[in-house]
Specification:
Purple Acid Phosphatase, chain A, domain 2; 6 helices; 26% helix; metal ion binding; globular; alpha/beta; five-stranded mixed β-sheet; 2',3'-cyclic-nucleotide 3'-phosphodiesterase activity; Metallo-depent_PP-like; 27% strand
Length: 258
């Protein structure tokens, strides 16, 4: 079975790119499950019900997120009521929503786990210990769920890679998000776990992380706060596909979408 995972969707251009390009990717790859990180889908920062629905209508089946999912407070109730939308599991108890879901995908159940790193990020619970506890819950189920996908939303490449090795042989894939720059290190680790440091983004190609570079340049030069705006221009979809043995959960092959 093949799983298709798309990097951070940034604003209206990202949503438009997914709507335009995902149908062809689905025809090409015939994925059993399509997952995307949607935390920047609304105006380049946050997610709301309307933008989530647009991504579902385009063919995405599960949305993961990260630190920006809290930007729009009106969206919090949706995190509690919509099981197809995840927030990082290692936020402390009491945070809205859920960090893991089990989804039907072509007759196979797939567990999707959303985590967030702590290096240069918010000081939240440990993603390593959190995912260990979640895997214990999966292992305790009466019905096994060997196919397991992890989105690690983190800034530091070292933290993402360390988590991938920590989970090697226990999950099908550990795929990074948040930096919006697709990395060229897709590989299968010992034990059959596919790993990629960052899946990239869905948004404007000639941009700074999907945003207009001019405001970001001014902020770097002056050190002063500056309002960022979503860039305009040629749009792209970046991500990764992973082939998984549905019986064992081991990754068989992995490749980039760009």
């Amino acid at each position: 079975m093949r799983i298709l995972f798309l990097g951070d969707v940034v604003g209206r251009p990202g949503r438009r790119a997914v709507a335009a390009l995902l149908p062809a990717l689905i025809r090409e790859h015939d994925p059993a499950l399509v997952v995307a990180n949607g935390e920047n889908a609304a105006g380049g920062l946050g997610m709301d019900f309307k933008t989530a629905r647009q991504l579902f209508d385009a063919g995405v089946q599960v949305l993961t997120s990260g630190n920006h999912v809290w930007k729009i407070k009106d969206f919090y109730p949706t995190l509690d009521t919509e099981p197809r939308i995840l927030r990082p599991a290692n936020y402390p108890p009491g945070a809205p929503g859920r960090g893991m879901g089990v989804y039907a995908a072509g007759g196979v159940e797939v567990a999707v786990i959303n985590l967030m790193g702590r290096t240069f990020m918010d000081d939240i619970d440990c993603p390593f210990r959190t995912v260990d506890a979640l895997l214990d819950r999966l292992d305790a189920r009466d019905t096994p769920v060997p196919v397991r996908l992890v989105d690690i939303h983190a800034e530091a490449t070292s933290e993402k890679i360390a988590l991938a090795y920590h989970l090697a042989g226990r999950v099908s894939a550990v795929l990074g998000t948040h930096t919006h720059v697709q990395t060229n290190d897709a590989r299968i680790l010992p034990g059959g776990t596919a790993a990629l440091t960052d899946a990239g983004m869905c948004g404007v190609r000639d941009s700074a992380l999907g945003m207009d570079p001019r405001a970001i340049i001014e902020r770097f030069i002056t050190g002063l706060p500056k309002r960022f705006t979503v860039a305009s221009g040629e749009e792209l979809v970046s991500g990764v596909w992973v082939d998984v043995d549905p019986e064992t959960g081991r990754a068989l092959d992995v490749g980039l979408v760009s």
